[in-house]
Amino acid sequence: MLSQVKRNEFSYRAPRGTSDILPREQGYWRYVEERAHAICQLHGYQRIETPIFEDTRLFVRSIGEETDIVAKEMYSFPDRSGAMMTLRPEGTAPVCRVYIEHGMHNLPQPVRLYYIAPIFRYERPQAGRYRQHQQFGFEAIGDGNPALDAEVIDMAWQFYHSLGLRGLWLKLNSIGCSSCRPSYLESLKGYYAERIERLCPDCRRRLVQNPLRLLDCKKESCVDIKESAPRSIDHLCPRCQDHFQSVEKYLALLDLPFNVDHRLVRGLDYYTRTVFEIQPQGEEGAQSTLGGGGRYDDLIEQLGGKPTPAVGFAAGVERIILNLKRQNIAAPVPPQPDVFISYLGEEAKDKAIEYGSRLRREGIGAILASSGRSLKAQLRQANALGMSYAIIIGEEELGEGKVTLRDMVSGEQRQMSFEDAMKSLKEKQ
Ligand code: AMP
Q1: Of 64, 179, 217, 420, which alpha carbon lies 20 to 30 A from 167's?
Q2: Nearest 5°: phi and psi at 4?
Q3: In a 3-state reduction of DSSP, which class is residue 136?
Q4: Which of 326, 356, 373 marks a domain boundary?
Q5: Domain containing residue 270: CATH number
Q6: What atom in ligand 1 is closest to the CA of residue 315?
Q7: Distance of CA 289 from the midpoint of ligand 1 (Å)
Q8: Structure-derived torsion over alpha carbons of residues 46, 243, 229, 284, reported in degrees to the nearest 10
């Protein structure tokens, strides 16, 4: 009885923060993914796919123990052997693992790779923020030249542009390297320590555990403090300064309209030097960022590889689709079968099955009517599905060994042999 009650009370739904991508949405997904493949092909990036889960230590080591992702958001679980696994919470660390594991330092450098993959983070769901989302990301590993930063930033910009998105902001900053950042962090901590009374509880914790993230606080009370905080670009060592100037120079050369944002730090610990984000203009919320990336020159070494500079970028597909809709950009409708085959009776059904298969073998998409309906009802179904043509096999057609080919738009129709109908449909393709 109890199980009966429980069963009735429970209605199955997609888990909170996840969504089903229904057929009517697929056009957008396909559009974004095709643009992603195209931009990567243009720039010589090759696709890579990694497992959906990895050893938890990979993410803790790379993203950083004090980050929100590692501290609060990972889907981690012991597998049946007791080893701790984590559903991929970001795409860069797995790509770096692959680079090391498969000896990619032996390939011509930089190695240019891209992925389109689901990402899992236990976040508070809201518009534009989900617990499972899809990221398109690309990484150029094995070259520290600022020209590569510019290549990655340009590629990200051109990707959005190729989708038709306009009115975007490109924000840029440099957060220095392991030699100049410590002195910057000291200055930042000193500044915030003097104002500790006014900080929100999260920022008081950040001050001790992850001071760079102080600059990321969105709370009203901390925004003013953030405005006048010391700037990382004033504390760069000469090499980081040179690097940043070169990136700025190349971006200007490429006509990319960037703004230097001194508060831009990003949420993962592995970044060094260049960081950047792309946002829709006028929307500064944490949920609006369309994509971001930067350099991570120390990460491969931290994960056990040789010292290897690298730079990358990742974009959230759901947010792109949200912005496409906001900007009234329609995605091309994916192609669907053209021909509907309607029939009456068992003998005609055999023919319909045979003809349907023969059409498809010739590359002509076809759908069979469902059995047991009148021809009129079947043609109504063809209309509702938006089919261009119908092949009708009724009693008369069966008797004559022919079919009727009907143009569903004009209503014109003619009897002919199936072979002629197929020929005519082929010509219309
Ligand atoms: P990140 O790995 O945090 O730099 O995220 C890269 C991009 O993925 C962001 O700019 C967003 O477009 C997207 N993104 C990150 N987290 C989420 C999320 N929880 N839901 C939807 N999209 C997200």
Answers
A1: 217
A2: -60, -50
A3: strand
A4: 326
A5: 3.30.930.10
A6: 7
A7: 7
A8: -30
- Both 118 and 245 in one domain: the answer is yes
Gap from CA of 22 to ligand 1 centroid (Å): 21
In this structure, the number of other CB atoms found within 10 A of the CB of residue 238 comes to 8
pLDDT at position 217 is: 86
* Domain co-membership, 288 together with 344: no
Are 310 and 386 in a shared domain? no
- For the CA of 69, the closest atom of ligand 1 is 3
Residue 266 shares a structural domain with residue 403: no
Nearest to 404 by CA among 357, 355, 361, 333: 355
CA of 135 to the centre of ligand 1 (A): 7
Give the Cβ contact number of residue 335 at 10 Å. Answer: 7
Using an 8 Å Cβ cutoff, are 98 and 58 in contact?
no
CA of 184 to the centre of ligand 1 (A): 27
Domain match, 318 and 356 both: no
Q: Which residues of the chain have pLDDT under 50?
A: 1-2
Which atom of ligand 1 is found nearest the CA of 277?
10
- What letter represents residue 139's amino acid? E
Distance 140 CA to ligand 1 centre (A): 20
From 135, 152, 270, 311, give the residue whose CB has the most ligand 1 atoms within 8 Å, as the site to mutate. 135
**Which atom of ligand 1 is nearest to 128's Cα?**
21
Protein residue whose Cα sits closest to atom 12 of ligand 1: 316
Q: Is 148 contained in some domain?
A: yes
Domain carrying residue 138: 12-180+236-326
34-64 per-position pLDDT tens digit: 999 999 999 999 999 999 999 999 999 999 9
The per-residue pLDDT for range 256-275, each reduced to its tens digit, is 999 999 999 987 889 999 99
Does pTM top 0.90 for this prediction? yes
Which residue's CA is the closest to the ligand 1 atom numbered 18? 129
The helix/strand/coil state of 29 is helix
Residue 240 lies in a domain: yes
- Closest ligand 1 atom to the C-alpha of 314? 6
Q: According to the model, what pLDDT value does residue 54 have? A: 98
